[in-house]
Amino acid sequence: MSLESCYSAMEGDYQTVYARLSKNERIIKKFVLKFLEDGSYDLLVRSLEEKNYREAFRAAHTMKGICQNLSFTKLYNSVNELAETLRPEDADVQKAGEQFLDVERDYKQTVEAIRTLQAEG
Fold first, then answer.
1. What is the Cα–Cα distance from 90 to 38, expressed in whole angstroms?
2. Whole-model pTM over 0.90
3. Distance of CA 43 to CAs 28, 53, 70, 93, 119, Å?
4. 3 state SS for the chain
5. N or C, which end of the chain is more exposed by having fewer CB within 10 Å?
6. Considering Cα of 60, then 64, then 65, then 66, what sign does the dihedral take?
């Protein structure tokens, strides 16, 4: 799988990240693969399970930044909505729970695309 195909599979914006990271596919691939090592998603899941919404916001906000920098557009959009719902002290936790389902789906799609890229070298 090519890097561009990976971005297509995850519904990301390859052209934007290509321009942002100096048109260097080696660097882009390095950072894309590092996403698999990031613990923000696991922290988000754990924090929501523990009803620690402040920590869940922090994890979602971190994921949002990573996704924005790497142009993981679909995942960025869903995690951004969740982060904004979790931002206030009196967060709408029911809405956050519903939005998390979108984040979970988009995260799995993104990770699957990256793992395919990784497996195919």
1. 28
2. yes
3. 24, 11, 20, 17, 26
4. CCHHHHHHHHCCCHHHHHHHCCCCHHHHHHHHHHHHHCCHHHHHHHHHHCCCHHHHHHHHHHHHHHHHHHCCHHHHHHHHHHHHHHCCCCCCHHHHHHHHHHHHHHHHHHHHHHHHHHHCC
5. C
6. positive
